[in-house]
Each structure stands twice: as C-alpha cells, then as structure tokens.
Amino acid sequence: MSWSRFARQGSQVGKARFELAILACLVCCLPLLGQGSWSTLRGTVTDPSGAVVPHAKVTIEEAGTGITARTLTTDAQGNYEVPALKEATYDLRVEAKGFETYVVSDIHLAGNEAKRVDVTLRVGATASEMTVSGAAAVIATEGAKIGSW
C-alpha cells in the first residue's frame, strides 16, 4: 500500500467521523427547538358584584405598535387564556355589552411566564372606556408572588 493511498483513506475516515459528529450534535439539539420562550396571559372577567361575565371580547395588542396579537372571548365562567405570546409588553382590552370598555396598559411578559390579569368591568355605556395605565397589578400564578410588574 502506498503512502498516498493510506493518506487518502485516513482523510476519508476522518471526514466521515467529523460528519457523523456534526449529525449527532444536530440530532441531540432537536428537542431544544420545542422549548421556546412563550408566555401566557390569563384571567377572569367579572362585574362589580363579582359575577362572571361570559363571552366578553378580549383583545391583546403589542404596546407601542398597536398590532393585535390575539382576539378571543371569555368562556362561560368568564375566563380567558392567551397562550404562546412572545416576550413583549402588551395592552389588554376587554369589552362586553352593557359595560364600559376596560383597558390595562403596559403588561410586560418575560419569556416562559404565566401572568394573571383579572378584570372587573363597570356597568355603563359601551362608549365609555376605563383605562388602567402604568404597571398594572397582576398575580403571578406560577408562584406566591403578588405585586406590580
């Protein structure tokens, strides 16, 4: 066997091992693709007496841009849940017939965070709007922490 033939075989084996190592790294990293930094915003919509408000329209917009991230309605128990929101600051708007529109501004969601924002609607004309701006009081549902974010 000549030296040049041996060198070629060695380089082919080395190349194959390198390609196999790269492939193994890619396969091992595949499960990480499913782990995004998505957040969830949830809450309950009630009236002043504490009764739930079913089928209220809930709109989530990116603060600053006004781009609507999601629009949905509350369920029969007055609950809403908005999963898979990217890390950003949002405005929450809740509308229901016979109630004033309620807006919560500047809700910051960090990656992989679940935040609860409960809303109490005031009875009134639907043309009226109540805005809560600044850091809204929210409840972190993933722990025992209560405060403003």
User: Mind telling me which CATH architecture of the largest domain this is?
Assistant: Sandwich
Number of strands: 11
State the helical fraction: 10-25%
Shape field: elongated
User: Which regions have little confidence, pLDDT < 50, spanning 5+ residues?
Assistant: none
Taking the sheet with the most strands, its summary is: 6 strands, mixed
**Alpha plus pi helix count:** 1
Strand content: 35-45%
Structural class: alpha/beta
According to CATH, the fold-level topology of the largest domain is Immunoglobulin-like
N- and C-termini, Cα separation: 73 Å
Mean pLDDT: 81
Q: Could you name the CATH homologous superfamily of the largest domain? A: Carboxypeptidase-like, regulatory domain
Any idea how many domains?
2
Order of helices and strands: HEEEEEEEEEEE
Quick one: CATH class of the largest domain?
Mainly Beta
Radius of gyration: 26 Å
